[in-house]
Write the structure tokens for this entry.
Amino acid sequence: MVMLYILAFGFCTLLGCENGTYGENCNNMCGHCIDGEFCDHTNGSCLNGCNPGYVGDECKTSEFDMFNKELHSTVVVDQFV
């Protein structure tokens, strides 16, 4: 039964991934977790938050990118008013 579980969910996910990776077969890279902490090995979330300038559960979105998207959408909307 244990062997079937390992095959179904991936060996890395069951036992944990190497530092800096997460997910099935440890194929995903962690984001920018605060103070260089490693993310959760199953879902990539940063348990204690993000480094400054990054947001989201996985700390993969920069605040700069979010600001640019908001600014662009505001400018586009304003052009039609």
